[in-house]
Amino acid sequence: MKLRVQVPLLLLFFYNIEIKMNKLEKNLFEKGYTIDDYGNVYSPNGNKLKPIKKNGYPAITTRYIDENGKKCFRKIKTSRLQAYKTFGDKIYDYNIVVRHLNGNKEDNSVSNIAIGTNSDNAYDIPKDIRMKRSMIGAKLVNKYSAEFVLKIRDEYSNGKTYTKLQNEYKLPKSTINYIIKHKYITH
Question: What is the pTM of this model?
Answer without folding.
Answer: 0.62
